[in-house]
Amino acid sequence: MSLTAVTPAIPARSVPRIGFVSLGCPKALVDSEHILSRLKAEGYEMAESYHGADLVVVNTCGFIDAAVAESLDAIGEALAENGKVIVTGCLGARDGGAFVREAHPHVLAVTGPHAADEVLQAVHAYLPRPHEPFVDLLPPQGIKLTPRHYAYLKISEGCNHHCTFCIIPHLRGTLVSYPIGSVLGEAETLLNAGVRELLVVSQDTGAYGADLRYRTGFHNGRPLKTRVAVLAQELDALGRARQAWVRLHYVYPYPHVDDLVTLMRDTAGSEGGLLPYLDMPLQHASPRLLKAMQRPAAPEKVIDRIRAWRRALPSLTLRSTFIVGFPGETEDDFSTLLQFLDEAQLDRVGAFAYSPVEGAAANALPDAVPEEIKQERLARFMEAQAEISARRLQNKIGLTMTVLVDQLAEAKQGRKKTVIALARSAADAPEIDGLVQIADGHHLQPGAFVKVNIEAATEHDLIGRVG
Ligand code: SF4
Prior knowledge:
- The chain is built from 13 helices and 20 strands.
- By secondary structure, the protein is of the alpha/beta class.
């Protein structure tokens, strides 16, 4: 068995070297080229012999029995000659990787075909990429516009729904879920870079993997279904291992969200991991209007579902957004919405007066609501929610809670200026929810977790002292 020679000359400097065995059809060969190109771009060198390699990648074939045997032999030879082996390709996908692992339990990682991202992750895990000052102008986590201690983790692009007020599916296309291995790899990179809170975002987080028919992906050689519950479980484990929070946004109330709440309940009280927090854009509560909006998820069951979630997990924070003044909204529809708000007792709510978006189907709907009525309903809606929010925050006075410090800020106490810390609890996403003001937090660093005794509350914020 010979290794694919990629670089004719081996430079004198010490750089990590990878041996590559490429088997199978032209499609597998293209996969090999793709992986090799990326490894080379990252500064790895290719080895011409097993002994000159720090690690060997074997791209396998699993088409017929002879190809399976040849692939297993190649893996065995690489293990015997080198010892550090990552397996990729068609044979790697058999039984979710178990077939290869049964024959060769000592391989470092196994992925399926077309899995360059996963192979690169596995290589990084066992043979860190070389530092190249002329190439590595970026930090591993890339350029981030958020503060250092939190980051958004995008898991998919596009959307399969056709909400009549929205043009995102026209702009960004239908749902394309990112491979679960890449998402988890990015999460690890961010956590390694010091991120203390991952904010999972997409257009429809609950639908993650539906476009891929929930196919099996790989992370560090482990087969994982591309499903939101699996992703949440893995992110929870990563978050707990690194003491970082994981927060889910844009989760529609599909039935399988019950599984996410169960996971949150099972992990509640851990240091880090999945937060008991759901950001669930509902947009309205009147069945007639939701139909006109063509919203996903049936509205009738939402209250029942919220009650069941709260019974299972009383610490669950529910956030939502609503549109008032959608075309055709009557005073009755609006009353239904206010009644829903009263029954749901959501913790955090954002609301907008409907405004037409160029190209949206809703523009063609009759019975536009006059602007002054929209604004008047928006004010009534926000007033009703402010009372609910204030009441719910009052219930937190006397609690001790873990918060994440965002920044220090100047505050006035009478005539005196003082420095306080602004932080967030598990119930507060950055930018959209409230804050926890720490009156004696002048010594705290952004990105630090700290326990705070809650002493007072305003409509949207809590006020406390370091516990
Ligand atoms: S509003 Fe509707 S169509 Fe637009 S992104 Fe959300 S679910 Fe998709």
